[in-house]
Amino acid sequence: MGHKPAMEYQASAEAPYTLATGDRLRVIVFGQDSLSNSFAVDSSGHIAMPLIGLVPATGRTPAQMARQIEEKLRSGYVREPRVSVEIEAYRPFFVLGEVTTSGQYPYVNGMTVETAVAIAGGFTPRAKKNGAELTRTDGVRTVTADVPMNQPVRPGDTIVIQERFF
């Protein structure tokens, strides 16, 4: 794992959002109400759909999932499938270290490290308040970096607020 240079971390921060365990998806198959539903990405990184069974989700974008579901449906189930995949609920993020209430929290769109700390009840008196350690897994790699308080947070991120040295 280890700490990565800021540039490599920045690249992973701007990559398109990819799905992982804990995300909840709304899959709409146009004209096929019986196939349209809400699906959770399970611990193996798949969703289980009627007719076509398990569809891998981890590391894919919602658009890639939609294409994949269309392909599976096209092979013998639906003539001209049109599929839309939206994220219904994001997987949680985690805040640890020098915050009032460390733990797992529901993701809020557009949040930063600062927002995450506020959600976790704020800093403890011993907290280092000018940055945090953020760990992100993009489905394949895990990257950890020291980031500023205005760093955007993504679902599944782990934020650690360090203790400051007096």
Topology (SSEs and partners):
Elements: H1 6-14, E1 24-29, E2 37-40, E3 46-49, E4 53-56, H2 62-74, E5 83-89, E6 93-97, E7 103-105, H3 113-119, E8 132-137, E9 142-147, E10 158-161
Parallel strand pairs: 6-10
Antiparallel strand pairs: 1-2, 1-5, 3-4, 6-7, 8-9, 8-10
Q: How does this model look, in words?
A:
The two termini are 29 Å apart. The chain has 3 helices and 10 strands, in the order αββββαβββαβββ. The protein is an alpha+beta fold and 166 residues long. The protein folds into 2 domains: 78 residues, Roll (Outer membrane lipoprotein wza fold like), CATH 3.10.560.10; 66 residues, wza like domain (wza like fold). It is elongated, with a radius of gyration of 19 Å. The strands form 3 sheets. Strands 7-6-10-8-9 form a 5-stranded mixed β-sheet, covered by helices on one side. A 3-stranded antiparallel β-sheet has the order 2-1-5. It has a two-stranded antiparallel sheet with strand order 3-4. About 4% of the residues have low confidence. β1 and β2 form a beta hairpin.
For the largest beta-sheet, the strand count, sense and barrel status come to: 5 strands, mixed
Total separate domains? 2
Helix/strand structural class: alpha+beta
Give the CATH level 1 class of the largest domain: Alpha Beta
* N to C succession of SSEs: HEEEEHEEEHEEE
- For the CA atoms, what is the radius of gyration? 19 Å
- Helix count? 3
> Strand order, biggest sheet?
7-6-10-8-9
CATH architecture of the largest domain: Roll
CATH H level, superfamily name of the largest domain = Outer membrane lipoprotein wza domain like
The overall strand count is 10
What do we call the CATH topology of the largest domain? Outer membrane lipoprotein wza fold like
Q: Provide the β-strand percentage band.
A: 25-35%
Give the overall pLDDT as a whole number: 90
**Which spans of ≥5 residues are poorly predicted at pLDDT below 50?**
4-9
* Portion in helices: 10-25%
Coarse morphology: elongated
